[in-house]
Amino acid sequence: MSRQRRKESVEDLLDNNNIPSSTTTATKERNTSGHVGILIIKQLVVCFCTIYCLLLLLLYLSSTFRQQLVFLNYLKNPFLNYDDPEAFGLPNTTNFYINGKAGKLGVWYVPANGLAAINDGKPVILYMHGNAYSRATQHRTSTYKVLSALGCHVIAHDYRGFGDSDGIPTEQGLIDDSLTVFQWILANTNNGPVYLWGHSLGSAVAVAISKILTETDVSVMGVILEAPLNNMRDAAFNHPLATPYRMWPFFQDTLQEVNEMYKSDEIISSIKYNILILHDHGDKIVKFMSGKKLHEAALKHKKENQSIEFKEFTGFSHTTISASEDLPEILRNFMKLDK
């Protein structure tokens, strides 16, 4: 009888929740974890919405912010040692500086085949990179290596405000800086063949200086445009970062400011040099159709004996066309290089 009463007493305590069972404790822990998870999700949603609204406000109110989104020059690694190009896989490369209108411009000279001198008569390529980061970025150095292996000298500079170059970027500033470096090339290459290479935003710079050089009757052997934008407005509107903002009516108005920037499709037909356009079908940063539109614009006023080519790629996205096995042969044919 005594044991029976003790058993009933324990069961009564459990029923009255005076002593919690293991099942009850586990349930409470799950409920607590669930509440914490929901709270974290709510906080993340609030944080995302706040950031979204702040960016929306900045886009609408700040001209400076809109221009910064074009150049993204504040995205940089402040600890890079540009004096050591070999650390970036570029042996025998020289780091030096040129005086530009806004101060010093950081430049790398990547010699042909890693050995030759810049005034030996081999082709020299002025490389103009896209927005963000610097001349030391990996996909850019990969392109230098391909060009060097083909027997071309490469001069790669950072525009004002990029890398270790002085100044604040502007549309005209990038053009001026590239012309300054081009003049340095002319003064140091003993009249060797010079090509212009522009990637992404750099393609717009290359087209702009090609127009200026055409008008001043300066000799350039060809212009190579990798993943080019047809104009800045289309590039900005179709950029992945613009996706959350396209629904807003005023977003079109904010683009009016960039409408006047880098109208490559309006000026490319005035260029007299041979043109080669390289674009990948899967490019999500500058859409493939941008390259096609630019090609069509160039063909409208094709000059006699002018070559205007468009080469399509698949599987190399926006930054890795240099990895294509077809690229060296395409470049050899365009530049008429010896194999």
Automatic annotation (TrEMBL):
Region (Disordered), start-end ranges: 1-28
Polar residues: bias regions: 15-26
GO biological processes: monoacylglycerol catabolic process; phosphatidylserine catabolic process
Parts of the chain that traverse the membrane: 36-61
Gene3D superfamilies membership: alpha/beta hydrolase
InterPro entries xref list: AB_hydrolase_fold, Hydrolase_4
Any Pfam family matching the protein: Hydrolase_4
Annotated keywords: Membrane, Transmembrane, Transmembrane helix
Gene Ontology molecular function: any one: phosphatidylcholine lysophospholipase activity
A GO-annotated cellular component: endoplasmic reticulum membrane
Serine aminopeptidase S33 domain: residues covered: 124-235
Protein name: Serine aminopeptidase S33 domain-containing protein
Source organism (scientific name): Paramuricea clavata
Upper lineage: Eukaryota, Metazoa, Cnidaria, Anthozoa, Octocorallia
